[in-house]
Automatic annotation (TrEMBL):
Superkingdom classification of source: Bacteria
UniProt source species: Rhodococcus zopfii
PANTHER family: 4-CARBOXYMUCONOLACTONE DECARBOXYLASE FAMILY PROTEIN (AFU_ORTHOLOGUE AFUA_6G11590), CARBOXYMUCONOLACTONE DECARBOXYLASE-LIKE DOMAIN-CONTAINING PROTEIN
InterPro entries registered for this protein in UniProt: AhpD-like (IPR029032), CMD-like (IPR003779)
Name under which the protein is recorded: Carboxymuconolactone decarboxylase family protein
Species classification: Bacteria, Bacillati, Actinomycetota, Actinomycetes, Mycobacteriales
Domain Carboxymuconolactone decarboxylase-like: 62-133
Length: 212
Protein backbone atom coordinates (compact mmCIF):
# COMPACT_ATOMS: atom_id res chain seq x y z
CA UNK A 1 0.00 0.00 0.00
CA UNK A 2 1.23 3.53 -0.71
CA UNK A 3 2.33 5.62 2.24
CA UNK A 4 -0.13 8.40 1.44
CA UNK A 5 -3.90 8.17 1.26
CA UNK A 6 -5.43 7.52 -2.15
CA UNK A 7 -8.16 9.94 -3.23
CA UNK A 8 -11.42 8.20 -4.14
CA UNK A 9 -13.40 9.26 -7.18
CA UNK A 10 -16.21 10.71 -5.06
CA UNK A 11 -13.84 13.30 -3.58
CA UNK A 12 -12.33 14.47 -6.87
CA UNK A 13 -13.61 17.77 -8.25
CA UNK A 14 -10.72 18.68 -10.55
CA UNK A 15 -11.65 17.99 -14.18
CA UNK A 16 -8.10 17.06 -15.21
CA UNK A 17 -7.88 14.40 -12.50
CA UNK A 18 -11.31 13.02 -13.39
CA UNK A 19 -10.27 12.88 -17.04
CA UNK A 20 -7.33 10.61 -16.19
CA UNK A 21 -9.37 8.53 -13.74
CA UNK A 22 -11.82 7.84 -16.59
CA UNK A 23 -9.16 7.34 -19.25
CA UNK A 24 -6.87 5.04 -17.28
CA UNK A 25 -9.30 3.11 -15.08
CA UNK A 26 -12.70 3.43 -16.75
CA UNK A 27 -15.62 5.71 -15.91
CA UNK A 28 -17.32 3.13 -13.70
CA UNK A 29 -14.35 2.39 -11.42
CA UNK A 30 -13.15 4.02 -8.24
CA UNK A 31 -9.37 3.66 -8.71
CA UNK A 32 -8.68 4.21 -5.03
CA UNK A 33 -10.55 0.97 -4.30
CA UNK A 34 -10.62 -0.99 -7.56
CA UNK A 35 -6.97 -0.89 -8.58
CA UNK A 36 -5.61 -1.56 -12.04
CA UNK A 37 -5.08 0.68 -15.05
CA UNK A 38 -5.50 -0.17 -18.72
CA UNK A 39 -1.70 -0.43 -18.79
CA UNK A 40 -1.68 -3.24 -16.20
CA UNK A 41 -0.22 -1.12 -13.40
CA UNK A 42 -1.75 -0.73 -9.92
CA UNK A 43 -2.45 2.94 -10.65
CA UNK A 44 -1.84 4.35 -7.20
CA UNK A 45 0.54 6.99 -8.62
CA UNK A 46 -2.56 8.74 -9.96
CA UNK A 47 -4.69 8.39 -6.86
CA UNK A 48 -1.92 9.58 -4.53
CA UNK A 49 -0.90 12.52 -6.73
CA UNK A 50 -4.59 13.51 -6.74
CA UNK A 51 -3.96 14.77 -3.18
CA UNK A 52 -2.76 17.99 -4.82
CA UNK A 53 -4.42 19.05 -8.08
CA UNK A 54 -1.61 21.55 -8.67
CA UNK A 55 1.09 18.89 -8.34
CA UNK A 56 -0.98 16.48 -10.44
CA UNK A 57 -1.38 19.00 -13.27
CA UNK A 58 2.29 19.99 -13.16
CA UNK A 59 3.38 16.34 -13.41
CA UNK A 60 1.01 15.62 -16.31
CA UNK A 61 2.34 18.66 -18.18
CA UNK A 62 5.79 17.15 -17.74
CA UNK A 63 4.63 13.96 -19.46
CA UNK A 64 3.36 16.02 -22.39
CA UNK A 65 6.64 17.93 -22.54
CA UNK A 66 8.80 14.85 -22.95
CA UNK A 67 6.53 13.32 -25.55
CA UNK A 68 6.80 16.49 -27.65
CA UNK A 69 10.59 16.77 -27.32
CA UNK A 70 12.84 17.06 -30.38
CA UNK A 71 15.22 14.49 -28.94
CA UNK A 72 15.19 11.03 -30.54
CA UNK A 73 12.57 9.08 -28.51
CA UNK A 74 14.85 6.06 -28.13
CA UNK A 75 17.60 8.21 -26.61
CA UNK A 76 15.03 9.90 -24.38
CA UNK A 77 13.72 6.55 -23.14
CA UNK A 78 17.24 5.22 -22.68
CA UNK A 79 17.91 8.05 -20.25
CA UNK A 80 14.58 7.56 -18.47
CA UNK A 81 15.00 3.80 -18.09
CA UNK A 82 18.59 4.07 -16.90
CA UNK A 83 17.56 6.79 -14.42
CA UNK A 84 14.95 4.44 -13.01
CA UNK A 85 17.46 1.61 -12.74
CA UNK A 86 20.18 3.81 -11.23
CA UNK A 87 17.77 5.25 -8.67
CA UNK A 88 16.43 1.79 -7.85
CA UNK A 89 12.85 2.37 -8.99
CA UNK A 90 11.34 -0.80 -10.39
CA UNK A 91 8.31 1.18 -11.61
CA UNK A 92 10.21 3.79 -13.65
CA UNK A 93 12.64 1.22 -15.05
CA UNK A 94 9.91 -1.26 -15.95
CA UNK A 95 7.61 1.27 -17.59
CA UNK A 96 10.32 2.75 -19.79
CA UNK A 97 11.65 -0.65 -20.82
CA UNK A 98 8.15 -1.27 -22.20
CA UNK A 99 8.20 2.12 -23.92
CA UNK A 100 11.57 1.41 -25.55
CA UNK A 101 10.25 -1.91 -26.82
CA UNK A 102 7.23 -0.14 -28.33
CA UNK A 103 9.67 2.20 -30.13
CA UNK A 104 11.44 -0.75 -31.71
CA UNK A 105 14.45 -1.20 -29.46
CA UNK A 106 15.70 -4.80 -29.41
CA UNK A 107 15.09 -6.87 -26.29
CA UNK A 108 18.80 -7.69 -26.09
CA UNK A 109 19.67 -4.02 -25.84
CA UNK A 110 17.00 -3.35 -23.22
CA UNK A 111 18.26 -6.29 -21.16
CA UNK A 112 21.79 -4.85 -21.32
CA UNK A 113 20.91 -1.49 -19.73
CA UNK A 114 21.86 -2.64 -16.20
CA UNK A 115 25.36 -3.59 -17.42
CA UNK A 116 25.73 -1.17 -20.32
CA UNK A 117 29.36 -0.45 -19.36
CA UNK A 118 30.48 -3.88 -20.60
CA UNK A 119 28.00 -4.29 -23.46
CA UNK A 120 28.91 -3.83 -27.13
CA UNK A 121 25.26 -3.42 -28.17
CA UNK A 122 25.18 0.36 -27.78
CA UNK A 123 26.44 3.01 -30.18
CA UNK A 124 28.92 5.65 -29.06
CA UNK A 125 26.09 8.18 -28.64
CA UNK A 126 23.94 5.71 -26.68
CA UNK A 127 26.87 4.96 -24.38
CA UNK A 128 27.33 8.69 -23.86
CA UNK A 129 23.63 9.06 -22.99
CA UNK A 130 23.91 6.22 -20.48
CA UNK A 131 27.11 7.64 -18.98
CA UNK A 132 25.53 11.09 -18.83
CA UNK A 133 22.50 9.64 -17.04
CA UNK A 134 24.74 7.96 -14.48
CA UNK A 135 26.51 11.29 -13.98
CA UNK A 136 23.18 13.01 -13.34
CA UNK A 137 21.76 10.35 -11.03
CA UNK A 138 24.75 8.77 -9.29
CA UNK A 139 27.09 11.76 -9.25
CA UNK A 140 24.66 14.66 -8.84
CA UNK A 141 25.50 16.25 -12.19
CA UNK A 142 29.24 15.67 -12.14
CA UNK A 143 29.83 14.73 -15.79
CA UNK A 144 33.28 14.33 -17.40
CA UNK A 145 34.06 16.66 -20.31
CA UNK A 146 34.78 13.64 -22.49
CA UNK A 147 31.22 12.34 -22.06
CA UNK A 148 29.71 15.74 -22.75
CA UNK A 149 31.87 16.17 -25.83
CA UNK A 150 30.28 13.09 -27.44
CA UNK A 151 26.81 14.50 -26.76
CA UNK A 152 27.79 17.84 -28.28
CA UNK A 153 29.22 16.15 -31.36
CA UNK A 154 25.95 14.29 -32.01
CA UNK A 155 23.15 16.43 -30.55
CA UNK A 156 22.04 20.05 -30.68
CA UNK A 157 22.12 22.21 -27.58
CA UNK A 158 18.31 22.03 -27.42
CA UNK A 159 18.41 18.23 -27.54
CA UNK A 160 21.02 18.08 -24.76
CA UNK A 161 18.90 20.39 -22.63
CA UNK A 162 15.85 18.18 -23.21
CA UNK A 163 17.85 15.05 -22.37
CA UNK A 164 19.09 16.67 -19.16
CA UNK A 165 15.69 17.97 -18.08
CA UNK A 166 13.74 14.79 -18.89
CA UNK A 167 16.31 12.49 -17.28
CA UNK A 168 16.38 14.59 -14.11
CA UNK A 169 12.58 14.70 -14.09
CA UNK A 170 12.47 10.91 -14.10
CA UNK A 171 15.15 10.70 -11.44
CA UNK A 172 12.68 12.76 -9.37
CA UNK A 173 9.76 10.48 -10.24
CA UNK A 174 11.84 7.42 -9.39
CA UNK A 175 12.79 8.93 -6.04
CA UNK A 176 9.20 9.87 -5.22
CA UNK A 177 7.85 6.46 -6.18
CA UNK A 178 10.31 4.79 -3.85
CA UNK A 179 9.69 7.21 -0.98
CA UNK A 180 5.90 6.97 -1.23
CA UNK A 181 5.88 3.24 -2.14
CA UNK A 182 3.92 3.77 -5.32
CA UNK A 183 3.16 1.24 -8.04
CA UNK A 184 5.88 -1.41 -8.43
CA UNK A 185 8.00 0.33 -5.79
CA UNK A 186 5.75 -0.90 -2.99
CA UNK A 187 8.35 -3.48 -1.99
CA UNK A 188 9.95 -4.59 1.27
CA UNK A 189 13.22 -2.95 2.27
CA UNK A 190 15.94 -5.28 0.91
CA UNK A 191 18.65 -4.17 3.35
CA UNK A 192 18.09 -5.48 6.84
CA UNK A 193 20.04 -7.29 9.53
CA UNK A 194 20.52 -11.01 9.05
CA UNK A 195 20.13 -12.25 12.58
CA UNK A 196 22.62 -14.66 14.11
CA UNK A 197 21.07 -18.13 14.49
CA UNK A 198 20.03 -19.20 17.97
CA UNK A 199 22.82 -20.78 19.96
CA UNK A 200 25.62 -18.68 18.46
CA UNK A 201 26.95 -15.86 20.61
CA UNK A 202 27.96 -12.63 18.93
CA UNK A 203 31.19 -12.70 20.93
CA UNK A 204 32.07 -16.08 19.43
CA UNK A 205 31.44 -14.73 15.92
CA UNK A 206 33.69 -11.71 16.56
CA UNK A 207 36.46 -13.95 17.81
CA UNK A 208 36.25 -16.11 14.72
CA UNK A 209 36.51 -13.09 12.44
CA UNK A 210 39.54 -11.87 14.37
CA UNK A 211 41.24 -15.21 13.90
CA UNK A 212 41.35 -16.06 17.61
Amino acid sequence: MPRLREVPRAEVTDEKILFFYDRLFGPDKDPAVDHGTIHATPGDWWTVFAQSPDVFRHAVRGFALYRNAKLDPQLRELGQARAGYARGSQFVFSQHCKQMRSLGMADEKIAAIPHWQVSDLFSLLERAVLAYTDGLVHDGGRVPDEVFAVLQAELSDAEILELTYITCMYDMHATMCRALKLEFDDRPEPIEEVRVPEGIEVADLSADLAGD
